Give the backbone structure.
Amino acid sequence: MIQPVAVIGAGPFGLSTAAHLKARGIPVRVFGDPMVSWRDHMPAGMLLKSTPVASNIDAPQQGHNLVDYCDDAGIRRLVTDEDLVPIETFIAYGEWFRTKLVPELEQVRVVSVDRHQGGGFELKLDSGELFTARAVVVATGLSGFAHVPAELAAAVPDGPDPTSPVSHSSQEHDLTRHAGKELIVVGAGQSALETAALAAEAGARVRVVARGRGKVAFGSPPWKQPKLRPESPFGRAWSLWALSYYPHPYRHLPAEIRHYLVRRVLGPLGAWWLRERFEGKVQVSEVDRIVRVDAADGSPTLTVRTLAGRTQSLSADHVIAATGYRVDLAAMDFLGHELRTRLAVSRGAPKLGAGYVSSVPGLYFTGLPAASSYGPLMRFVCGSEFASPRLARHLAAAHG
Ligand SMILES: Cc1cc2nc3c(=O)[nH]c(=O)nc-3n(C[C@H](O)[C@H](O)[C@H](O)COP(=O)(O)OP(=O)(O)OC[C@H]3O[C@@H](n4cnc5c(N)ncnc54)[C@H](O)[C@@H]3O)c2cc1C
């Protein structure tokens, strides 16, 4: 029997990769909860920061872009940079893409992946089934990578949770639960600022606590972008253009530079359209650092060092750490011990070669875990346009 390729993940990258492999005639088994990160781990009512053209899940055939979904669903076409994409529309687009191109998706979890004695990989599913795959594509996205800084985590020994004084933003889908309450949101990225605006609109009294002066900032609207710089899915700038269209050489840069760029390029900045929903509605404390959080009586109090060097206390009913995601192979607990020890890593992320293959032949990574090798583009849906065809081509040549 021909062994299939296993694709672990049914978010934008997993679905896109599976569609490309199938188009090459490669048998696949695809696992995961479709679009779950978007459905359960982002706030309801969110608008995508990415523009419609930068929100396409790449497919090998034409007719599967966001605008094609809009036409098929009979809803208003989302085309220009000023058309904002509601998260509900994007989730429906992902489901539509899955139904059309990956209908055989299996909604089960992969519990373990190990090397198989006779070659390939042995996978165990939470249905109890064991099977062998000739290659494995890991497209598990944000799963398991939520990051809470130590000073906030210390206040919640059992881990962040919506029912404890501190949660991570990925645990806050329904912000209306904070209506009438005092809420602190820690962070300065789009996720922090949009979470704060949505919670304020739902009736919470919200304060954003961000580290550093001028850290809470918003991008320029499309009509104010500099005209003489090249266009990219993220705005007009030479750096963004190079990282968007030429990520090939990225993995050859020194590790320090790669990790710096992944963190800094397209780093914390609110979307242009969020400014008017935020300013005047959300309080902002720009601080030098958060010293600690006390939550002995169940209500959190942040002790911060101000930019002027003083100590200040900030109290609330709840703190949301909108402090992002950190790739860490250790969090991919489904990867067997032997595989993990054989994988070359760079600061917790797998080191990938041409075609997104790791140091273990047949084991591929795409999406966020590929960002330290292929650049910040991999953190966004539009990175699938670069990644999926290349990964599928490499896999077909090596294992087809
Ligand atoms: C608040 C927020 C807003 C964002 N906004 C944007 C935006 O506007 N535009 C943009 O381009 N990007 C945005 N992003 C980034 C975006 O989330 C990622 O680019 C995208 O989701 C990555 O897709 P993915 O397919 O790699 O992973 P995910 O979408 O995270 O999907 C992971 C998949 O893996 C599956 N999975 C995990 N573990 C297992 C397992 N053991 N077995 C089986 N399946 C498993 C899950 O079920 C799921 O199907 C945003 C992120 C956040 C947090």
